[in-house]
């Protein structure tokens, strides 16, 4: 095994319910994660209880598609 080329240092803070904010390298502002639409309903959060944000799955799909 070769040398480690990069270690990503990320901090995630839970805001409540499904809402989290992640601090990513080189980003000035945190990235918000949460739930919306059918995902929010699946986990039993009523509409309006939390602000809608993209899910972590949405970000993984976007990263894989890019």
Features:
alpha+beta; 24% helix; 2 helices; 66 residues; single chain; 3 strands
Topology (elements, then pairings):
Elements: E1 11-16, E2 19-23, E3 31-33, H1 37-42, H2 56-65
Antiparallel strand pairs: 1-2, 2-3
Describe what is shown at a glance.
This protein is an alpha+beta fold and 66 residues long. Helices cover 24% and strands 21% of the residues.
Outline the structure in words.
It is a single chain. This protein is α+β, with helices and mostly antiparallel strands. It has one domain (11-65). The chain is 24% helix and 21% strand. The protein has 2 helices and 3 strands. It has helices at 37-42, 56-65; strands spanning 11-16, 19-23, 31-33. Strand 1 and strand 2 (19-23) form a beta hairpin. The two termini are 28 Å apart. The model has no long low-confidence stretch (mean pLDDT 94).
Quick one: biggest sheet? 3 strands, antiparallel
Unreliable spans are: none
Percent helix: 10-25%
Overall strand count: 3
Number of domains: 1
